[in-house]
Write a structure and sequence with these properties.
The structure is a homodimer.
Chain A lengths: L3 E4 L8 H11 L3 E5 H7 L1 H11 L2 E9 L6 H21 L3 E5 L8 H21 L3 E4 L16 H8 L7 E6 H4 L5 H8 L3 E6 L23 H10 L6 E3 L4 H5 L2 H16 L1
Parallel strand pairs in A: 1-2, 1-8, 2-3, 3-4, 4-5, 5-6, 6-7, 7-8
Helix pairs in contact in A: 1-3, 4-5
Amino acid sequence: MNRLSINQYSVRQLTLVELVEECRETGIGVLGLWRDKVSSAGSDRARQLLRDAGISVSSLCRGGFFPYSTDEELVRTTADNRKAVDEAAEIGSPLLVLVCGGIAAAGLERSREMVLEGIANLAPYARDHGVKLGIEPLHPMFAADRSVISTLEQANDLADHFSPDTVGVIVDTYHVWWDPNVYREIQRAGDRILGFHMSDWLAPPPHFLNGRGLMGDGFVEFKQIAAAVNRAGYAGPIEVEIFNEELWALPGPQALALIKSRFQAVLA
Amino acid sequence: MNRLSINQYSVRQLTLVELVEECRETGIGVLGLWRDKVSSAGSDRARQLLRDAGISVSSLCRGGFFPYSTDEELVRTTADNRKAVDEAAEIGSPLLVLVCGGIAAAGLERSREMVLEGIANLAPYARDHGVKLGIEPLHPMFAADRSVISTLEQANDLADHFSPDTVGVIVDTYHVWWDPNVYREIQRAGDRILGFHMSDWLAPPPHFLNGRGLMGDGFVEFKQIAAAVNRAGYAGPIEVEIFNEELWALPGPQALALIKSRFQAVLA
């Protein structure tokens, strides 16, 4: 239980102030944050809130979207990614999650190269600010519009270009559970695993973006994947990140209680 | 154009009789058929219709769904798969498409083993009836409920257990376009490629099952994939298989004309 981190978007019905208060009351010590939510609360105030409540940050979502179709887009994305690193450093997040971006005008292959170039461009800046970059492969159903990096194998191939002190990968059960090579690639990732996210796969998902399941409601084999991630050497927070309309419709405290009990149940 | 095959479900608004008539008028010489549609028309009558019109069959959909949770289910599936082979032979289809099936009670890994066992069980029967079995990997978003075989690499690994005269793979752009290893695996498949299907990936798909796009409306790089499939040695029919509510809402002849023009356009 002390490894549980709540990704802020799992309970987006709560403001940061409300979420921190709930966590303090129920003994949750780690949060995964989103830039828009931190920005609404105000970065300084957010940091103070977390410090007062003794809550640490597992990650900040998100940077990335590296493929570009125009020079203007490249300039804009580069600036925004540096800003994301700044914000991670300010809020005390050791990790910036990278959602690498979809297909630019130049096509799939070139877009994948742009991801490598983008990370190479950002990595020194991130290192100088004490923030690690976590490449999160997204489910192949997001390959066109969100991430041309679809498998952990690709993420590992990318991370291989950099020092593990700066760039690593994030294993999210929702995105990788189906992959026949996932256990091989978790082992390969080893100390490059910077984050471990959980949500379940419903069949079919009730919504393309916001149809992730609460652990135990779907097909993901959590215990097996968690064991592999542990064996690979990852001992950090396990972030529950569920985008689900039904969960968002519940009162925040009830949603949190549900997440906690399911987290325990699927790993027990 | 002489490689164009129309999968019957792309224009499911047409009966088999209507479809054959349209094909005869517009010079389409190959069809991909579905068991339910053939069965409604009557197998003997269907065969006669096709013969009279000079239309050949590229494939029959479908067998598979090998993973089972009970012995009864295994008995039922085994019988149904043999029936599917019989029907393919009766209608003159050289190929039965295998949609391998989702996760059974025993879990993902065991389900994948059941697919191999199921194909091994069916292959001699298929060979004796002159019907080849085509393993079609389905997009990972169908891994839980339709196919635990999600990549061409898996399909090739399965096919490796059998003679290429009996078991091969089907490359469907909708299912494999996103795969970073797809070109490697197309080359590896070589003469094991028994079928090539086309539809486009819309982002996001408007419907989980029936949201496939007309070629040119989405992100698939048809020319590149087709070139790779040709290079690998496949020279057979290219089957357009689009499940799309909008296409189905059109008058059949209009839908067929649209498919023909897009087929030409994306390969030109």
